[in-house]
Design a protein that fits this description.
Layout: E1 8-16, E2 19-24, E3 27-33, H1 35-40, E4 53-59, E5 62-68, E6 74-78, E7 86-91, E8 95-101, H2 108-120, E9 124-130, H3 137-150, E10 156-158, H4 167-173, E11 179-183, H5 190-198, E12 223-226, E13 232-235, H6 248-254, H7 256-262, H8 279-285, H9 291-336
Parallel strand pairs: 3-5, 8-9, 8-11, 9-10, 11-13
Antiparallel strand pairs: 1-2, 1-4, 2-3, 4-5, 6-7, 12-13
Helix pairs in contact: 2-6, 6-7
Bound molecules: guanosine-5'-triphosphate, magnesium ion (MG) and zinc ion.
């Protein structure tokens, strides 16, 4: 990557269609990408995303983005409308704060998903169970235990943003210059937490409609904010669909319990179905492994395989299209000549 000494370095704080808001020192500036960057892009990941460090030059009253600096991590999910394509969510994240509310939102299988996409993006997941004010102590204890058993290596915090419970413990782990991304369903309290951390109202938060058990999509865009302690936060809107991509390390780390057990299965390619000598099924029988974990693993594994197949298919089509284009260009040249 050629670094031009005259270029200005900034960090993408917001994106709206072709326009970017980029943080440079203390100011926020409008920016657009060069035509070159646009035309050479072959996938969504080639465009700047919130959290990206970019190299820019000044042009009139805005900036032109020339390069995206190499990313240290990238949070991605499956693109919702185009099979086989991944959709970047945010770049250069150190920690993803995966938030669930302990009332109606609580769901271990959904946590598997968030944990998988975090690991797939080289991001450390931390789980936040919010709204602990809404359940009794015993109920909360059960849920904390279930999460800790499911993810023995991941930190879990129980908090109540509204009642300011557990927030000091959370604040204590925040580091200067690290970037944290808030992810989780709509209405779990992501923006409320950020507001609390900012100690001032900043992002709009909405009331959850009780009658429909649905959160309003109050956060409509991803946005990067810097706390006074120097920690960087990226707030995201709750996503309804969160398909895992085929980054193998994601599932391997999220389901490390299964992978570790599988090393002792008799057959190297054991599907943990009906094969003899299956250590995974034995662990379930012995009550050492939650049956639902295997079920969830299978589901996400199938999803990742399907994604992989669509991606290969898409590549093939793109290549065919590329060849066709080249051929017609050559034909044109011959005709001219
Ligand atoms: N009871 C209770 N309510 C909370 C708590 N934290 C947040 N809420 C409420 O939950 C609702 C949704 O909060 P938001 O912060 O907007 O949720 P969000 O995760 O940002 O939602 P999206 O932006 O739609 O993804 C608001 O009415 C908050 O007041 C909590 O600890 N306890
Ligand atoms: Mg929000
Ligand atoms: Zn097995």
């Amino acid at each position: 990557m050629n670094s031009n000494p005259n270029h200005i370095i900034g960090r993408v704080a917001r994106q709206h269609k072709d326009r970017y808001a980029v943080l440079v020192d203390d100011g926020i500036f409008d920016a657009e990408i060069t035509g070159n960057l646009r035309f050479s892009a072959s996938s969504k990941a080639d465009f700047p995303v919130v959290g990206d460090w970019v190299e820019m030059s000044e042009f009139d009253d805005f900036y032109i983005i020339h390069h995206i600096r190499p990313r240290t991590s990238l949070l991605q999910r499956q693109a919702v409308q185009s099979a086989g394509e991944s959709q970047p969510i945010a770049a250069n994240i150190d920690v993803s704060f995966i938030m669930q509310a302990v009332d109606r939102d609580f769901n271990l299988n959904r946590l598997d998903r968030y944990v998988s996409i975090s690991f797939a993006g080289d991001i450390e997941p931390v789980i936040l169970l919010n709204k602990m004010d809404l359940v009794d102590a015993e109920n909360l204890q059960q849920k904390m235990l279930a999460v800790q058993q499911r993810f023995p290596t991941i930190s879990v915090f129980s908090i109540s943003v509204n009642q300011s419970l557990g927030l000091e413990e959370l604040r204590a782990i925040l580091e200067k210059d690290k970037t944290y991304c808030l992810i989780g369903s709509s209405g779990v309290g992501k923006s409320s937490l950020l507001n609390q951390l900012l100690e001032e109202a900043h992002m709009p938060t909405g009331e959850v409609s009780e009658s429909h058990n649905k959160g309003k999509h109050t956060t409509t865009h991803r946005e990067l904010t810097v706390l006074t302690n120097g920690s960087v936060f990226i707030d995201t809107p709750g996503m309804r669909e969160l398909g895992v991509i085929d980054e193998a390390t994601g599932l391997e780390q999220a389901f490390s319990q299964i992978y570790e057990l599988a090393e002792n299965c008799r057959f190297g390619d054991c599907q943990h179905d009906n094969e003899p000598g299956c250590a995974v099924r034995q662990a379930i029988k012995d009550g050492e492994l939650d049956r639902s974990l295997l079920k969830s693993f299978r589901k996400l594994n199938r999803e990742a395989e399907k994604f992989s197949a669509s991606k290969a298919e898409k590549r093939k089509n793109d290549r065919a299209l590329g060849k066709y284009y080249k051929k017609t260009q050559e034909a044109k040249r011959r005709m001219k000549g």
